[in-house]
User: What shape does this take?
Amino acid sequence: MSFTVAIIGRPNVGKSTFFNRMSGMRDAIVDDISGVTRDRQYGESEWNGKTFNIIDTGGFVPRSDDVFEKAIREQVHIAIEEASLIVFMVDVTTGITDLDAEVTKLLRKTTKPVILAVNKVDNSTRLLEASEFYGLGFDHTFFLSSMSGSGTGELLDLLVTFIQEDNVEEEEIPKITIVGQPNVGKSSLLNALVGMERNIVTNIAGTTRDAIHTRYTKFGKDFLLIDTAGIRKKSAMMENLEFYSVIRAINSIDAADVCLLMIDAQTGIEAQDLAIYRLIQRKKKGVVVLVNKWDAIEKETNTAKEMEAHIRRKLEPFNDVPVIFVSALEKIRVFKAIEHAIEVYERRTRKIKTSALNNWLEEAVENYSPPGVKGKFVKIKYVTQLPVHYPSFAFFCNSPQYLKDSYKNYLENRLRETFNYTGVPLTLYFRKK
Assistant: This one.
């Protein structure tokens, strides 16, 4: 199940600091200047054994008051429509502003859970001042300081009660999702595979409204295809288009075993493609990169070999993935794409015997021993695969803290080569024996 929390509020109320605390990341730029968060921040958080996606909707760099208010309003509309739960953050030091009141009016119309987080409450005087925010009329109001962390635990205790555990036993067949930017041809690919107009296909970005699941049982194959919901073009502001597409991509990625990441051959790989790719990698899903609309490219100026090399450079450091040039419209190599996706699924779900892993480890260490650090030498005793849904390996050592990242990368690369993990992110843990 995918549960997405969006943090909304005007700039400079502390959304990025709160996001960093929730996700354990330090990616968001935190500053006292209004609107420094230019990029959306996406992460995962865990509390009381429950995991959820968390999105910092970001500040804005307004050119005028009108543009500023319009941007905030659009951000709230998107959060209301796409998120599972909304954290509305306000600032005790400024009191209730006109913009806070306007956002409150919008949130009163939604059936989604809303938690009001009154931030920067870090002393007894501010605690008294914060009581005015009860006047906004939200059922769930918390006083906190995202800088120090006080009050955030109580908020999270409530937040996770809204996450319903999905106990339904799912059939063990590959779940393949099609992700990518709007208008790259996701619906055309689905139609090419199922052989009928399952989705309405137009050249307008965002025709698909909801994620569509299709069971595929042709040609001896059996899997579930998930077409990522596109976006509805409500605004010319590209940052809001990206916000839509990424929230929906997150939900589709959560539901999948393998992701077909579609890239438009005419535009090449872009920052948004890389953002979705990193999400797939972070969530430990299998991935196949499809370069669509290859039939529309002038072959004299661009060759598949050159473009593939360029794509792999952009995907580094994890670029051990299948890259296939397709045309969903002309049905060129679309079935090859599915074959690769099923192979990636099989690699991702495969379990390797501990004896085979330790034979491999012995040879890998013999070829290249862990380098010593400050006179300390690391000895890796043995390795085993962990019983989780994606390939994870635990290496037991005498002093794992002295193992350099370069050596960890060496072991991962050798593991990939020996056991063929193309298209599958690996997780390696180094523990003290």
Observations:
- Residues 229 and 248 are 6 Å apart (CA to CA).
- Residues 65-82 form the longest helix (18 residues).
